Amino acid sequence: MIYRNMEEKDVDSVVDFYMGYYNRYEDGCWTKERARRRIHPICTREDACCVLAKEDGRLAGVVLGWFTQYDDLLVYDLHEIVVAKDCQNRGVGTALMGEMERRVKEAGGSMIQLQAVNDAMHEHFYSKLGFYTANNLLLKAKML
Predict the structure, then answer these.
(1) How far apart are the first and last CA of the chain?
(2) What is the rounded CA–CA span in Å between residue 139 and residue 81?
(3) What are phi and psi for residue 2, nearest 5 degrees?
(4) Nearest Cα to 32, choosing from 44, 48, 14, 9?
(5) What is the secondary structure of the chain as a DSSP string?
(6) Mean pLDDT, residues 34-45 taken together
(7) Closest Cα to residue 41, out of 79, 84, 97?
(8) What dihedral do alpha carbons 88, 60, 13, 124 form, nearest 10°?
(9) CA distance 51 to 64
(10) CB neighbours (10 Å) of residue 128?
(11) What does the pLDDT look like over 54-79, one tens digit per residue?
């Protein structure tokens, strides 16, 4: 597996990868415009840290997020991780998260935080990586 920082020139290929995965396997309805609107602002932020994983010259996975400074903590906010369907259950996602964790530590980060779908698959994946459900924060939402 080859890892490299995502650059703005990679946005279109990541948009296609993202849209293709979610529309095919997650019953999504992403368009290029919507996916670009999701991905481009993440990877072009000042404190962005986005990593591409390539296997045999093709995109196998991507992690998108950025750093947020708190008074006593530099936190990596992980916004997206997508692993190609044929790379799942082969350790690719785990390795990609390990690479991201290494990069976060190298940049001085002390924590990774994320929002995840509340299902068994996501719970299994994140808990095996040492993530826990934070009880001191609640996600609040209001439909308009």
Answers:
(1) 43
(2) 19
(3) -115, 130
(4) 14
(5) -EEEE--GGGHHHHHHHHHHHHHHHS-----HHHHHHHHHHHHTSTTB--EEEEETTEEEEEEEEEEEE-SS-EEEEEEEEEE-GGGTTTTHHHHHHHHHHHHHHHTT--EEEE---SSHHHHHHHHHTT----SS--------
(6) 96
(7) 79
(8) 40
(9) 7
(10) 10
(11) 999 999 999 999 999 999 999 999 99
Amino acid code (one letter) for 8:
E
Query: Rounded to an integer, what distance in angstroms lies between the CA atom of residue 22 and that of residue 2?
Result: 23
Residue 131 zone, left/alpha/beta (φ > 0; ψ -120 to 50; rest): beta
Q: What is the mean pLDDT of residues 24-37?
A: 96
Indicate if the pLDDT at residue 140 is higher than 90: no
Contact in structure between 66 and 47 (CB atoms under 8 Å):
yes
Q: Comparing C-alpha atoms, which of 41, 83, 80 is closest to residue 59?
A: 83
User: Hey, what are 143's tokens?
Assistant: 């439909």
